[in-house]
Structures are given as C-alpha cells and as structure tokens.
Specification:
Helix content is 78%, strand content 0%. It has helices spanning 13-39, 43-51, 54-87, 93-100, 102-105, 108-119, 126-131, 140-165, 168-176, 181-209, 213-219, 229-238, 242-276. The chain is globular.
Length: 277
C-alpha cells in the first residue's frame, strides 16, 4: 500500500514539531513554570497574604479597573476611527491611518514622558484642566490616559479589515427594502462588526493590564493610590522579596492565560461567522 504525503518545504513533521516544542519549552514554558514553582515557596497562607495585602489589592483594582475602562473607550472610539478610515476619502487619510500605529512603534518610555509633559499642570493640555482644578498627570486619570493611548490601535486594526470586506451592497439592499439608517446599522452592519469589536476590546484590555513603561511616568506611583501591578512586582524584586513578586506575577499570569483563551475563542468565532456569511 502506497502512502501519499503532502510535499513540504520543511524537512518533515517530526523534526519541525520537535524543534517547535523544544524552543517553546526553553523560551516560554520553563520560565513560566519556574515562576509558579517559586511562588509556592510562600505556602498557601503566605501566597494569599502576598496577593491580598492592602497595597496589592489597591494595585489590582487600579490596574484592572483602568484597563477595563480604557478598553471600553477604545472599543467605541476605535470603531469610529476604523469607520472613518474605511468609509471616507479625505486629504490626509493615509497620514491619519499611519498615526494609528504610532503607539506600536513608539517606545513606551517615550510615550510616558510625552503624556506626562502634555498633561502636567503646566503642560499644553494639562493647563486647561488645571483651570477647573482637575489633575490628570500623576493621578489615576493619568493611568487611564496612558492605557487609552496604547490600546487604540488594537481595536482599529481588528475592525478595519472586516469593514473593508463588508460590501456596500448589503446596506443598499437594506435601504431598498425600507430599512432606516439605524435599522441598517443595528441589523446589518453591527452584527458583522461585533465579533472583531469584542476581539479588539479583549486585545486592548490584555495589553493594558501588562503595560508598564508608559504608565509609570504619568501615574505618580503612590502606593495604594496610583501604583499599578507591574510596578509593584518590580518594587518587590528590588527589595529582594522574590516570593511575593512571583506570587503577584502568578496571579497576573493566570489572568493573562484566561484572556488569551478568550481572545482565541473570539477569533475562532469571528472566523466561523466570516466563513458562514
């Protein structure tokens, strides 16, 4: 019996799979497993005390609360920006489209310094808030601003390809059948955009949770008030409290795994809906 095999440029399934598993094991799995093992040195009670201290809980609340709010804002405005870039032609559109990717290319430290300079009480933007006695830089609002800045491209770039593939004939058909603009948006356009919108939201949320460089320059970093979880982990490491640092990091890693699973499920859902439509 002759076995037919698909031609492949790579040397074969066995060697490539072995190389892939070895590489992922050395680079990803072993370091992450070591993190979980190091956190077990505290024991159950010590682990709970490390992650439930008032300082840690305040950092968790700020990190996840600001990240969620920033992702919600980015979901709305990212949808608007993607719609404008795809549906309208105007001078400077390509430049505006390129600016969307700026948070990807800009070093996070540069972004943090720029935001802190702009939103400081004497900054170009912060001085207008200071008139109404509103502080942005070095407050929790500054954390929110930084997370919005770094998360917007994830939503725009997730929705934009779907909008480009959405045929205008669907809207014309709905209009010819007597649908209003709101009904066309509600029943024709939005159901198609909902899966990538949720995916972009999850990506922006996951990115914001782990953000460090752009936040520490504008947050003020006051323990219990404007201190984020990544900074708390770094401080614990500086104080040679490795077990507490790994315990907090283990919580963040677990949440990251859950978000990664959710993002993959949303991407599969998006692919299935796109194929079925």
């Amino acid at each position: 019996m002759i076995a037919f095999r698909r031609p492949s440029v790579l040397p074969g399934f066995g060697p490539t799979l072995g190389f892939t598993l070895a590489y992922l094991g050395l680079i990803v799995l072993i370091p992450l497993a070591g993190l979980f093992l190091r956190s077990t040195e505290l024991g159950v009670d010590g682990f709970i005390r490390a992650v439930s201290s008032p300082r840690a809980l305040a950092a968790f609340r700020l990190t996840f609360g600001a990240s969620f709010l920033a992702a919600v804002v980015n979901a709305f405005f990212g949808l608007v920006v993607a719609w404008v870039l795809v549906r309208y032609r105007f001078p400077g559109r390509r430049v505006l489209d390129a600016f969307v990717d700026l948070p990807f290319a800009l070093p996070t430290a540069v972004a943090g310094i720029a935001l802190a300079t702009l939103y400081a009480p004497n900054g170009w933007i912060g001085r207008w808030f200071d008139v109404f006695d509103i502080r942005v830089a070095f407050t929790q609002a500054g954390v929110f601003v930084a997370l919005v800045f770094i998360g917007l491209p994830f939503v725009v770039r997730t929705i934009q390809p779907v909008l480009q593939d959405l045929e205008a004939e669907l809207e014309e058909a709905a209009a010819s059948l007597g649908a209003t603009r709101w009904q066309t948006w509600r029943f024709v356009i939005f159901p198609v955009l909902l899966p990538p919108l949720l995916t972009g939201f999850a990506l922006a949320f996951a990115r914001a949770i782990g953000e460090y460089g752009s936040v520490i320059f504008i947050a003020g970093n006051l323990p219990g008030r404007t201190e984020i979880v990544p900074l708390l982990i770094f401080i614990q490491l500086e104080q040679y409290n490795y077990a507490a640092a790994t315990a907090i990091a283990a919580v963040m890693l677990t949440i990251s795994f859950v978000l990664l699973l959710l993002i993959n499920m949303l991407q599969r859902w998006t692919a299935k809906r796109h194929t079925r439509d």
